[in-house]
Give the backbone structure.
Amino acid sequence: MIASLTKVMINAGASWIVWVLGALSVISLAIASERAFTFWIRKDNVPLLVKNLHQRLLQHDLAGADAVLRASKSVQASVVAAGLAHWNNGSQAVDEAMAAAKGMERARLERRLGFLGTVGNNAPFIGLLGTVIGIVGAFEALGHGAGAGAASALAPERVMSTIAEALVTTAVGLVVAIPAVAVFNYFQGVVTATIESAETLGHVLLSHLEGAPELRRRAASAIATPYDFGIRTAGEKV
């Protein structure tokens, strides 16, 4: 059984490992680029958004506050717009609506990031597999050359050369893994910061809600269509 497995590993070689790692690297780059573009288009000046929302709510201008939020493509604005849509239902309903919206937005922001984390964690092991296959082949060649007389003197050089080539796969695995881990950690930090700033903006809304119960009666007519929580019509992308 072991002999058969050894032959399979030697015949397969380690070159296919490099191709697998190359494919993982290309996919990781594509995902990183797509996520970077997504974060960029949903970026906004949150301090200015807080200021504008605060001013509209101080003036009891719910329609204006809703317009300010819907004019922004940011995650923070989407979350608070979900809460504002439930203004007339009280602070508990507003808080629950924003919590639900934060969950949906976090899922959208973290889409495909798990692949980057998986590549970062496993690419070194894939490279190590290639190294093991190469070393097995090197020692197999050394074993066959042990009884070859004068020719066996060259065996150690061949073995060292084969092992050096095998170690390349481990190096390639690390080259693929390190950027993937770095990008994954960076994007996770961006997601966390985005959700935290959404919570900050939500507290602005809740603070005005607690101090202005009379505005609830005007909310239904002043606020536009509620946040859709990711629901789309058939054929439309989420």
